[in-house]
Amino acid sequence: MNIGKIMVVEDSELLHRMYDLIFMRYTRNGTHIVHSLNGREALNQLNSHADTDIIILDINMPVMSGLEFLHHCKSENVFRHIPVIIVSTEGKEEDTLRGLRFGAKGYVTKPFQPQDLYKIMEDIITMTAGARAKNSKALFETIPI
Amino acid sequence: MKITGFDGLFDDYLLDVREKLARLEDLLLSLQEAQASEKERILIETKRELHTIKGNSGMMGFTKLQKLAHEMEDDVESLDLENIELGDLLRKLDRFKLSLKEINEENQGEEEIQDDEKLHGQIQGSMRVPFSALDELVDLLAEMVIFRNRLYEAIIKGHTMESQEQAWEEAEKAQESLGKTLDFIQERIMRLRMVPLGSLFGHLRRIVHDECERGNKEANLETSGGDTPMDKALLEIASEALGHIVRNAVVHGLEHPDDRARAGKQRKGRILLTASVQANEVFMDVTDDGAGIDLEVLAEAAKREGIDIPSREALYSLLFSSGFTTKGGTDIAAGRGIGLSSAYAAVQRLGGAVEVVSEFGAGTRFRLRLPLSVSIMKGIVLEADNNEYVLPLTSVIESQRFHLRDRHQLNHGSIFTWRNKVIPLLDIGYIFGTHTGIRENGYVVIIESGDKQRGLIVDDIKGIREIVVKGLDNMIGNPPGISGATILGDGRVLLILDPPGLTAISPFVGSGFKERR
């Protein structure tokens, strides 16, 4: 699968290094990974990375939590279309459910197997790509020539 | 179930989780003392640290640790903030640390750091380095390559051109730039080795907590200066020394709550740890409001042991001598022997010091002084019998010419008078077996370590150099009077003299030399 840009929002630097390993199968083909240590940093970075294809989001983070980030992200027209996958440690299921209600497309609990993440990511990207193609076509058709 | 593919990250995981555990210990133990308004913030951070530990351990495939962290999360969740009971949590924390150690040993067979290596300021394991710092170093290296090339070109010019003056000038310029960049690199690398002192606080709080429980005492450890940077190697030494000092403060310094109340003090004892950087040293003060040290008792004990004490300050230094005890005064200094003395030896070896000030009845302050960095230091190069040695500059008080007539014989040793003080002389050549008999003239270098001075006799003083300290090979062991070696610019290897070791050598030696004690 061809993915242009993945944003990882996660406060543990160790996890960032794990994601680097997990996403090697994509980065080998030129996928770019943007690393953010908390929600605020991620929001700032989104401004220069609006072309992000998918966001991997942790919930429990200092400065700005994943849920807050999701809320801000989904209320911005420029970013709301970017699919978000919540990856968080089991134990706080109510937060995860809230995240899904806030507009996250999927969720994975730690610890997970890389295959599980690949599957859900690729499904979601295919889905959104299809939806966007349809949307842009619809948009095109409504413009009077 | 182990998720494969992350084995390469084990060191990172270990470093990360150990840091988090230390922080967790600090947070948990400060929860007891915290103001109600603070408690909420501490709890949130505690839970976050635990949650991350749980997640990361799970991702690494350490299910047992993941479960333990989960249990601890539950424990934190059910803490009664009005009456905080940490026993269970701390035991689980210990179990976590132990399991981690076992996993580590299984994984890489890492042995615990040898004491010898610790003493020489060498540490194993890893540390965290920000990418930006590495980038900066790479840039500086690139600069060095440019200056090296300029130097090379200047040399070629010098060989081929008729006028060598311009070539010399260019070479000098390049050399100067090279030196400056090197200074920069040195400074940056030294900074990379720095870690905040605050990373020790959890460990110290734990000691206070455990000792209070053991001795039925009450104490509060207050800390400040946690962001004081320290060389990682020195931090290990500081950790040990501060551990002994803090334990000492609870066990021997603080009185029982009832006694404190009778003396008109708060039932709960107060231990204050402050740290600050002054010039090239880190000062760490541990102050307690306990019973203080009774100098009379110390003096009596010294008398009993047949130790001659010149001053009040010297009495305090008895606390650090191995095996010294005041016997009769069990509540003051009993049991203080080995621990404090070994920590003290390690501190001294690295060029640090411990100072004590105490007011009987009101409290004691231990001041731990350590140099900011151990790996590079200034030394004075001495020559005796065509052998050169380096002496750490921090221990040198003065040096002067020396003539035979300044020397006085006393029993089997020599002394001389300096500023109305009698100072024992040590001939470097005699100590290291390159000279017998008495040196006619040369120089005397006055050194000080603790409260002891010695005059070192040498043939010549060659000047002051900045040296990079290398440890001695383990096979050589710890020869008295030598702390390590260094390599000079011309490739020669010089031994580094060890001032505490030298001052411990009895000046009154017959044949050969013995350590005192």
Question: What does this protein look like?
Answer:
The complex is a heterodimer of chains A (145) and B (517). With 145 residues, chain A is an alpha/beta fold. Chain A has a single domain (5-142), classed as Response regulator (Rossmann fold). Chain A contains 6 helices and 5 strands. In chain A, helix 5 links the parallel strand 4 (84-89) and strand 5 (106-110). In chain A, helix 3 (39-48) runs parallel beside helix 4. The radius of gyration of chain A is 15 Å and the shape is globular. Chain B has 517 residues and is of the alpha+beta class. Chain B has 4 domains: 7-111, HPT domain (Four Helix Bundle (Hemerythrin (Met), subunit A)), CATH 1.20.120.160; 131-192; 195-371, Heat Shock Protein 90; 376-504, CheA-289, Domain 4 (OB fold (Dihydrolipoamide Acetyltransferase, E2P)). Chain B has helices at 10-31, 36-60, 63-77, 87-108, 115-119, 131-160, 165-192, 201-215, 232-253, 257-262, 295-305, 312-317, 330-333, 338-349, 428-431, 499-504; strands spanning 194-196, 219-224, 229-231, 269-278, 281-288, 353-359, 363-371, 376-384, 387-392, 396-403, 408-410, 413-418, 421-427, 441-449, 452-458, 460-468, 482-487, 493-497. In chain B, helix 1 crosses helix 8. The chains are: A alpha/beta (145), B alpha+beta (517).
**What's the average pLDDT of chain B?**
81
As for the CATH topology of chain A, it is Rossmann fold
Poorly predicted runs of chain A are 137-145
Overall domain count of chain A: 1
Annotate the secondary structure layout.
The complex is a heterodimer of chains A (145) and B (517).
Chain A: E1 5-9, H1 13-22, H2 24-27, E2 32-36, H3 39-48, E3 54-57, H4 66-74, E4 84-89, H5 93-101, E5 106-110, H6 114-142
Parallel strand pairs in A: 1-2, 1-3, 3-4, 4-5
Chain B: H1 10-31, H2 36-60, H3 63-77, H4 87-108, H5 115-119, H6 131-160, H7 165-192, E1 194-196, H8 201-215, E2 219-224, E3 229-231, H9 232-253, H10 257-262, E4 269-278, E5 281-288, H11 295-305, H12 312-317, H13 330-333, H14 338-349, E6 353-359, E7 363-371, E8 376-384, E9 387-392, E10 396-403, E11 408-410, E12 413-418, E13 421-427, H15 428-431, E14 441-449, E15 452-458, E16 460-468, E17 482-487, E18 493-497, H16 499-504
Parallel strand pairs in B: 2-4, 9-18, 13-15
Antiparallel strand pairs in B: 1-3, 4-5, 5-7, 6-7, 8-9, 8-16, 10-14, 11-12, 12-13, 14-15, 17-18
Helix pairs in contact in B: 1-2, 1-4, 1-8, 2-3, 3-4, 6-7, 8-9, 9-14
